[in-house]
Amino acid sequence: MRKVTRASCSASWFVPLLVCLAFSTLFSQVKDSVIVTVTTVTYGGRYAPKNASMIWIQKPDKTFIKTIGKKAQNYIRYCTLWNSISKGDVDGLTGASRSSHGVLTGRWDCTGQDNKPVPNGTYEFWVEMTEANATGKNSFGTITIDGIAKTVKGTETTYLKSFSAVYKVTSVNTMPLTEQPALQSVTFEQRNGRLKINLPGSDAYTISLLAPNGKICHTTRTRGTGAEIDMNSFARGIYILNVTNAKTRTLLSQAIFR
Q: 158: domain range?
């Protein structure tokens, strides 16, 4: 098996312009997500059970990524840990302070403040809750964004219960762009961020991975039974896998959700 080498993106006419435009739109809609939930419990603060709460994502080195849950309104300044990390950035979220305790939820679309997909890696999901005009309670958990769906637990405390994050992955889905008998002779599988292409053999093949705008980001020429692409360094979104044989006949043109 020959390994695919990375090439700089260059113009390509493998994908019709209409298809490129359609997938450019879809590219911005398909995202992985992390759902964070926690059940808050009163600690007997001055305004209990009224409370202000925040959920956010940051890196282990304290680099702020995004606020994903806000129930604070006028008391947001008393979420002191969140303020120290985020510098007061709520990313457009709204939400009044809560009059009671219960389940608190935040949804992260795996993007940063620029709304672009974050790279694979380790991230922390944090929650902070206060019932007074002062610092309250907080906790966190760690989750790895790597294209593999998972559920992880955060550190539970007396006042922050059932704390967890569910990582939902859209990249396991694919969508065919062509319907040809030759599709039966080419298959592929995605696992751990790697794309394995199985070929029928006894022919020369060109394998390309294209961005939705039709530019080639990966390409290789091989003869044999297959090739492999490591997609872990690629931004999340939609790519188009295009396989042709030596006669430039399209064997496979398929959308890959990374």
A: 33-168
